[in-house]
Amino acid sequence: MPSSARHDDADAAQPFIPLDRTAAELLARTLRAVADPTRLQLLSMIAGAESGEVTVGDLATTLGMTQPTITHHLRIMVDDGLLVRDQRGRQVWHSIAASRKSAILDLLR
């Protein structure tokens, strides 16, 4: 059986609990925020950063994109509460919001 079709015993033991409306709306908003390959790359780069935060310039250089393009994608995720923005002088650093870190790491696995 392919690995994607396998279920862990731990998953099978967990009862399925349907989403209430509030949880469904939050999840839908988050899925819209990350439903872009560039945003998923950005999240994975930030999650994988040794310090847990990355500058816009570093992200733009690594992905070979302009800073305004990176800023646009990051703003969408900041507005959703996935990322935290911290401006220090002329540099803007982004990190994963502590309250969403577990969910984001699960998403990226």
Folded structure, characterized:
Residues about 1-5 have low confidence and may be disordered. The chain starts with 8 loop residues before the first helix and ends with a helix. It is of the alpha+beta class. The chain has helices at about 10-15, 20-35, 35-50, 55-65, 65-80, 100-109; strands spanning about 55, 85-90, 90-95. It has one domain (about 15-109): Winged helix-like DNA-binding domain superfamily/Winged helix DNA-binding domain (Arc Repressor Mutant, subunit A), CATH 1.10.10.10. Helix 4 (about 55-65) packs across helix 5. Strand 2 (about 85-90) and strand 3 (about 90-95) form a beta hairpin.
What is the element layout, followed by pairings?
Elements: H1 9-13, H2 21-34, H3 37-48, E1 53-55, H4 56-63, H5 67-80, E2 83-88, E3 91-96, H6 101-108
Antiparallel strand pairs: 1-3, 2-3
Q: Any idea of the CATH topology? A: Arc Repressor Mutant, subunit A
Strand content: 5-15%
Q: How many independent structural domains? A: 1
Please tell me the CATH architecture by its name: Orthogonal Bundle
User: How helical, in percent, are the residues?
Assistant: 55-70%
Strands across the major sheet, in which order? 1-3-2
DSSP helical segment count: 6
CA gyration radius, whole angstroms: 16 Å
Q: Assign an overall shape.
A: elongated
Write down the secondary-structure element order: HHHEHHEEH
CATH superfamily: Winged helix-like DNA-binding domain superfamily/Winged helix DNA-binding domain
Q: Which sheet architecture does the biggest sheet show?
A: 3 strands, antiparallel
- What is the CA–CA distance across the termini? 20 Å
Structural class determined from secondary elements: alpha+beta
Mean pLDDT: 89
CATH C-level class: Mainly Alpha
Number of strands: 3
